[in-house]
Structure formats: C-alpha cells, structure tokens
Amino acid sequence: MADAKIIPAVEARVHLGEIMKRAFKKGERFIVEKAGIPMIAILNADEYARVIQEREERFKIFDKIRAKVPDMPAKEVENDVSKAIQSVRRKHA
Q1: For the chain, what is the HEC assignment?
Q2: Residue 89 has pLDDT above 70, yes or no
Q3: How buried is residue 41: exposed, middle or buried, by Cβ count under 10 Å (0-12/13-18/19+)?
Q4: What distance in Å separates the CA atoms of residue 48 and residue 81, rounded to the nearest whole number?
Q5: CA-closest candidate to residue 79, choices 54, 56, 93, 62
C-alpha cells in the first residue's frame, strides 16, 4: 500500500474515530505499526470488498489453469496469472 499513511498503534487507538471517517469519506488508507512492525491496515469497506473479490477471482483463474496443467509448478502458474491480470488492467486503465 504505497499511498497508505503509517501510524503508530497509540495514535490509531487515540484517533480511531477520525481515522475511520477519513478512510470512509476520503478513501485514505492507514498502516498501523506497533514497535515499528506493520500490524494491520485500515481501509474503507468498499475497497476491502474489492480487494477480496479480486483475490477470489485470481484464485478461480489460478485453479482453472492449474487443473489444465497439473504438472506445471504452482509458482509458474501464479506468475502467468499475475502477468495476465496486469495486462488486462493496463488495457482497461
């Protein structure tokens, strides 16, 4: 999440209501860190649903390809799927 704001856990705890409003209304993203370690991400529910849907679609494609070429290494199939998805996104951008 390159455009996410990194915030410490204490700040997230103190300002949770404001952070939620900013995520919901402005689409801002936050990475909450504890002791410098990224622990969670905060994003609005619509974006979360989109991420989950894209993930499920990617796995459907992956499973379909994997079933047709069972001897192909899983990593190779995953790389091919990622390249295909990036190509489609570029065409629709």
Answers
A1: CCCCEEEEHHHHHHCHHHHHHHHHHHCCCEEEEECCEEEEEECCHHHHHHHHHHHHHHHHHHHHHHHHCCCCCHHHHHHHHHHHHHHHHHHHC
A2: yes
A3: middle
A4: 21
A5: 62
- pLDDT, tens only, 16-69: 999 999 999 999 999 999 999 999 999 999 999 998 998 888 778 777 777 877
Q: Are 29 and 4 in contact (CB under 8 A)?
A: yes
CATH of domain 5-43: 3.40.1620
